[in-house]
Amino acid sequence: MKTIFKTLALLVMFGILAAPVTMATATVEEQPHMKAALEHLRLAKAELEQAEADKGGHRVAALKATNDAIHHAEEGIKFANHH
User: Fold this and answer.
1) Are 46 and 11 spatial neighbours (Cβ–Cβ below 8 Å)?
2) Which letter does DSSP use for residue 1 in this model?
3) Which one of 6, 8, 38, 56 is CB 3.0 to 4.6 Å from 73, fit for a cystine?
4) Integer Cα distance of 71 and 38 in angstroms
5) How far apart are CA 28 and CA 79, in angstroms?
């Protein structure tokens, strides 16, 4: 009977110790929405760079906003990977 309790105690202990490692690994590997958004932003940047004329300054403003959004998406991914 003692062996069963010792075995169960060890299993519970290993399960508790493994949980934080599993959770941390999942955070680093998973961010499909942020990664997809980043890819879309990069595609939008390429389209804005190819657009003709300035459109009254709006193309340049959109390009700046897109560059800012790319930066923030990259920083958000980095932050999530380290926290």
Assistant:
1) no
2) -
3) 38
4) 9
5) 10
- The structure tokens 């897109």 sit at 66
Q: Locate tokens 């980043």: which residue?
A: 38
Q: Which residues contact 51 (CB under 8 A, 6 or more apart)?
A: 59
Specify the residue for token string 């961010």: 31
Cα 34 from Cα 41, distance rounded (Å) = 10
Q: What percentage of the chain has pLDDT greater than the value 70?
A: 65
pLDDT by residue (tens digit) across 34-49? 999 999 999 999 999 9
The single residue listed with the structure tokens 């934080």 is: 20
The packing angle between helices 58-82 and 32-50, to 10°, is 160
**Concatenated DSSP letters for 9-60?**
HHHHHHHHHHHHHHHHHHHHH--HHHHHHHHHHHHHHHHHHH--S-TTTHHH
